[in-house]
Amino acid sequence: MDESNLAAVWLTLKLACLVTVLLLIIGTPIAWWLARTRSWLKGPVGAVVALPLVLPPTVLGFYLLVVMGPNGVVGQMTQSLGLGLLPFTFPGLVIASVLYSMPFVVQPIQNAFEAMGERPMEVAASLRASPRDAFFTVALPLARPGFITAAILGFAHTVGEFGVVLMIGGNIPDKTRVVSVQIYDHVEAMEYAQAHWLAGGMVVFSFLVLLALYGRRGNSGWSKS
Amino acid sequence: MIEARFQLNYPEFSLDVDLNLPDKGITALFGHSGSGKTTVLRCVSGLTRAPVGRLVVEGQVWQDEEKGYFLPTYQRPLGLVFQEASLFPHLSVRKNLEYGMKRAGNRQGEGFDASVALLGIRPLLDRAPDRLSGGERQRVAIARALLTRPRLLLMDEPLAALDLKRKLEILPYLEKLHDELDIPVLYISHAPDEVARLADHLVLMEGGKVVASGSLMETLGRADLPPAFADDAGVVLETVVAAQEVDGLTRLDFGDNSFLVSRVDQPLGKRLRCRIHAKDVSIALQARSDSSILNALPAQVQNITAADTPGHTLVQLVLADGRVLLSRITERSRATLGLVPGMPVIAQVKAVALLA
Predict the structure, then answer these.
(1) Domain layout of chain A by residue ranges
(2) CB-CB neighbours of B87 under 10 Å
(3) Which residues contact B73 (CB under 8 A, 6 or more apart)?
(4) What CA–CA distance (Å, rounded) separates A81 from B12?
(5) By three-state DSSP, how is residue B146 classified?
């Protein structure tokens, strides 16, 4: 395990943690809205959130590159704000990862909210809890299993991404070179021993994540509200 | 006084009610499923907003659509008990009780001990809801609603999800509630026995409309109710345990009359509600000493209407003190006896169902 490998691991963990936290914050209201709304927009919004599930990462990466680039809408905005351009920076990578991992976070939370039904919120209202109060004191605690699943999936999926990273982040040490890209580099350079360390680590990590996930489902805490 | 008027239209169902309910005692909203009784309760609680509606509870306006005014549920001083277990599973029994209590501004926990004692839940306080039986959960839910110090208590078939044993376990608590509570209770039910046992006031609903509303005893004594209610026709009488007879019978007095029933182990003076089913009342033209039926009361025919099944009639009988009995007899018997309104007869009561 050399220093560049450690740097890649550190960067990956930093990215995955940040993305997971951001997604829990952004994804919760979206999931709540999707679970409760009767608006016709539910279908279209749900589909947009789920798009990264079916799109090749290169497609997402390509459009992000265009939008965040010097001539893109977001790119011109960030430039006029004096933030420079986002592609090939860590913040750019975070934004891309948030979009890419969105469905993995939104859907488990949405399912948990839907499984809960209207009743707990109605009960809370009958006990004088305002909608906001009831959301924090009843809906969030009841949906906890969904949040744990969402966090695990969001984290793991961000760790496992490659295509989007390559498109939008490139391969800059300490900035955008995450584990998956580092492995690719090692293989290209025929450094199989180095690649083994990281690749093996990813296998073990992924197995543990899935074990945590299915272990939870097994002991019934997961779908029950 | 509670003044409630709601109109709403769903594709398959429409509701149109205009109710004036007493501000004391238990009012039962009774009807078969789909009659709209739960919708009325949801409108009163504010969980459903009727596009046309006005609701005034003891002078306080909760909804007035003409002015576009609607008080959301969480701002209404009401207690709500749902049909199925509605305790928050992530909170202990005590925390469940405190949830509403704190938010209703009852921080000192005024009435906590009384409510806990009234519903017999002290030993359960530190348990998790999933470690309680169905009946225990409902008792906690009732206490939780009471601790918000509501001005109106709404109960949506609180016993419907329980088996008979649990029902019998919880009914005495509801009766205690009835005796000790000084706020109005709106109680939804489709079980005639529950209604007969608990209610003071009765609202009968069918197809989204109110078909009858009035005091329990009066409304049940009406012979002109729609057929949907006639199969359960029968009146409720408030009686007092008057004597334990030497031959193993108990005498129950009501007004100027009395019933003899099999021994009831209750102290003298205890008030008991009895239900007299119309099918258990037969009619004779004169008092007979050659009959095995003990309970024969002089009465007068008031009203005769067709019963639910062809060939049967429902006869409304008035006792000397104004109390009413219903009798379900065949049309042929009616013709043979030549019954007409105003005729003096003897009501023979074959069975008296005790409700406690």
Answers:
(1) 3-218
(2) 24
(3) A122, A125, A126, B45, B46, B47
(4) 56
(5) helix
- Identity of the residue in B86, B89, B103 whose CB atom sits nearest the CB atom of A128: B103
Taking only the tens place, the pLDDT of each residue in A30-69 is 999 999 999 999 999 999 999 999 999 889 999 999 999 8
Q: Which amino acid is at A60?
A: L
Residues B203-243 have pLDDT tens digits of 999 999 999 899 888 888 887 776 656 667 888 888 999 99
Q: Does the A3-218 domain belong in CATH 3.40.140.10?
A: no
A199-211: b or e for each residue (b if 16 or more CB lie within 10 Å)?
beebeebeeebee
Q: Which of A123, A134, A225 is the closest to B86 by Cβ? A: A123
DSSP code at position B129:
G
Return the CATH fold of B2-223. Rossmann fold (3.40.50)
Which amino acid appears at position B55 of this protein? L
Specify the amino acid at residue A216. R
Provide the shortest C-alpha distance from residue A132 to chain B (in Å): 11
Q: Which of A128, A144, A223 to mutate to test the interface with B (most CBs of B within 10 A)?
A: A128
Compare all CA atoms of chain B with the CA of A224 and give the residue at the minimum distance: B89
Which residues of B are less than 8 Å from A142 in CB distance? 88-90
ipTM over 0.90: no
Choose from A126, A130, A138 for mutation: most chain B CBs within 10 A: A126
CB pairs under 8 A between A and B: 59
